[in-house]
Amino acid sequence: MPSAVNILNRLREMKTLPDIAVRLTRMISDDTKSLQEFEEVIRLDPTLVLRLLKIVNSPFYALASKVESIAEAVAFVGMDNLRNMIVMDILKNIIKNNKINTNFSRNDLWLHSAAVGICSQLISERIFEEKGENAFLCGLIHDIGLIIEDQIEPGLFIKACDLFAHEKKQIDDCEREILGTDHAKIGFLLSKDWLLPAEVREGIKYHHESINDVDPESLIGIIKISEYLVYRLKYSPLPGMKSILPESLLKHMRNLIQEYKTIAMDLPDELKKADDIFSLNQE
């Protein structure tokens, strides 16, 4: 059976991930890098420049004036948002190479990922009054391991999806039985390779784990709550998937039930507002 490390090594050998974008995600974690250095790297890929400018000028960011350069983009949205745009661009271009089997669609996973990312940001900002960039990033890529499994081991991945569809098991249990690893482990290792923040890596690693006493304000807690809401709104990557919350998170949600109801009501409109940047049919 392939291990998570083996799957990622094969992903690198296939050179599916754009070198410049991956290089940029690593650079952003280095506080010594200057804006000029970022611009020099980004300019090496003119199509990436155009896509990033399209994202920053979309209704999702609602800037007062049009941004026409990467330097302006960073000045307006900040380095964390630039990192999120780059990761979003990587993920979007992987998903565009769509494969569909009976139980799994990358398009459905993309919608689920977008919904969890936006919902996580709303929870971080509205419930905990914290910056939501890391919550958005963690939600966006928490399931990236599923796409990588589909790309590197499509036959085994289909078998894992079929097992999930026909037996009452969690998807990660099915992955481990068929593939020898699971998407959370793969996503964690990839996020570590990209030098993403530690809390983002931990949120990805543990989003399916049964943890009894989860801090609601942690990214693990936020992603679990977000997935719970998103599944109830029918944004699911696989038919029949659901999120079971530990009592600590259920108690937290009961105490703030009106706030969470408002987030659930607002999420479809927030997704619609973000359609420009999440549409797979646009360049």
What does this structure look like?
The protein contains 16 helices and no strands. It is mostly helical and 283 residues long. It has one domain (4-278): Orthogonal Bundle (Hypothetical protein af1432), CATH 1.10.3210.
Could you give the topology of this structure?
Elements lengths: L3 H11 L4 H10 L6 H8 L3 H11 L13 H27 L9 H22 L5 H9 L2 H9 L1 H13 L4 H9 L3 H11 L4 H8 L13 H14 L14 H9 L1 H17 L1 H4 L5
Helix pairs in contact: 1-8, 1-11, 2-5, 4-5, 5-7, 6-7, 6-13, 6-15, 7-12, 7-13, 8-9, 8-11, 9-10, 11-12, 12-13
Q: What is the distance, rounded to the nearest whole angstrom, between the alpha carbons of the first and last residues?
A: 37 Å
Mean pLDDT: 88
Structural category: mainly alpha
**Major β-sheet profile:** none
Helix-strand pattern: HHHHHHHHHHHHHHHH
* Level-1 CATH class name: Mainly Alpha
CATH homologous superfamily heading: Hypothetical protein af1432
Uncertain runs: none
Percent helix: 55-70%
Query: How many distinct folded domains?
Result: 1
Question: In the CATH scheme, what's the topology name?
Answer: Hypothetical protein af1432
CATH architecture: Orthogonal Bundle
